[in-house]
Fold:
Amino acid sequence: MDASASPDPRTDDVSAVYDPWSPAFVADPYPAYATLRAAGRAHWHGPARQWLIPHHADVSALLRDRRLGRTYTHRFSHEEFGREAPPAAYEPFHTLNDHGLLDLEGADHARIRRLVSTAFTPRTVEELAPTVRRLAAELVGRLVAEGGGDLQALVAEPLPVAVIAEMLGIPAEDEERGMLRPWSAAICGMFELNPSEDTARRAVRASVEFSAYLRELIARRRREPGDDLISSLVAVEGLTEQETVSTCVLLLNAGHEATVNTTVNGWWTLLREGVRPDPEKLSTAVEELLRYDTPLQMFERWVLDDIEVGGTVVPRGSEVALLLGSANRDPARFGPTADRLDLTRADNPHLTFGAGIHYCLGAPLARLELTAVFAELLRRAPGLRLTAEPVRRPGYVIRGFEQLLVEV
Structure:
């Protein structure tokens, strides 16, 4: 079915409630989510041409449903699926993105996930713990020594980027190491709804530059293998160079976005609410901060075979927007306190890291990083406070701030 066809005429367009391009909505989407949940289980959103799924039970089920996919090209051509091929000018971005674990399906996804998952076993992550805690202590120490500054630029961003760079084996002396965060930010801009031409150009340029650097580094590792993930991937038979490049880029992008934005969103929430976690129950508090202000608000999937949600048929060729931010505030799963911050919440099956075959491989590492950085800030900067009201980034899908200015 052509996805541009009209939706079920019984379904109202909810664009008056759900407006992901509105700064007011981006600042606080949660009241709109409550309205969507009360109104039903599947809603057509005309401007984005997506079906919105706001309930925890439905989002959780559809994340696991193999009738949906992150891509459709493993089963259909663009024409068969009622979609246009991406513009030729975007090819470097799509080549990079489409060979990454997040957007692969079927046998290719299973093959690459099996290879990469060895880097994220509980034992491997635990071996990283001393490095993560050392980096967190150094970064927080610098913030304290300077009397404050931008928590995002000084602490939240450098920590996970440095950890992923160490895992991949990106040498500290390479000048390109300083480009990892800008490259990632440019590429991730394409995950927002209806990205602009300027956003696409930046993403394409970053894709070309990042890929070229990684290909050069891969060549070095072939000549001189090291004790790092790129060396391990290079040694694997059956993994193409493009798959290796795309996997490395995905690990950087996915491996730090959740940590950066949960750190900053989390501290903004704590400072606004005037509360602090109990250091002895920090892992529980981190889970609540991941739930309460979800760093990835929405996850898109293509409908490969007709599905039914709450009596509404969502046909093949459609795109669904699984509203993780709404699911994480659903009273049907989190009770009457779903909209309240509860740093002691024990029963907390949030969907921040996804579910099913695309569940975030780096979730254990993200939890380690978040626990380490929150512990250091609570210990070294107990009087942390805002010095300016932060400004939200305009993007809706990846939820974050431009900066978070604080003093200690």
User: Anything to note?
Assistant: The chain has one domain: 23-407. Residues 42 and 309 are 6 Å apart (CA to CA).
